[in-house]
Amino acid sequence: MPNIKSAIRRARKSKKQALVNRARKNKYKSVVKQMTTYLNSGKLKEAKSFLPKFHSQLMKIAKTGTISKETASRKISRTVKKINKSKK
């Protein structure tokens, strides 16, 4: 346990931030899982309608730094490729 006042505040702050990051990570995982479920089950219509929300959620999470912007962009790009490929 920290003894210095600023260290105590910092520990409290990092504990709160860890909870926020965990919530964001869970949101990220659930959105990716939902999109994967749509693609694997062949529900292209649902996947296509869910795509804007998927994109929005990933970029919001990337903006905060919980996941990197490159990771979010890569997930979005690969998802769009899968949708376009399975449409043909």
What's the number of structural domains?
1
Strand content: under 5%
CATH class: Mainly Alpha
Number of strands: 0
**CATH-assigned fold name:** Methane Monooxygenase Hydroxylase, Chain G, domain 1
Structural features:
single chain; 88 residues; mainly alpha; Methane Monooxygenase Hydroxylase, Chain G, domain 1; 3 helices; 88% helix; 0% strand; elongated
SSE layout:
Blueprint: H1 5-41, H2 44-64, H3 69-87
In words, what does this structure look like?
The chain is an all-alpha fold and about 90 residues long. The protein has a single domain (about 5-85), classed as Methane Monooxygenase Hydroxylase, Chain G, domain 1 (Up-down Bundle), CATH 1.20.58. It has three helices and no strands. The protein starts with a helix and ends with a helix.
Give a short synopsis of this structure.
With 88 residues, the chain is mainly alpha-helical.
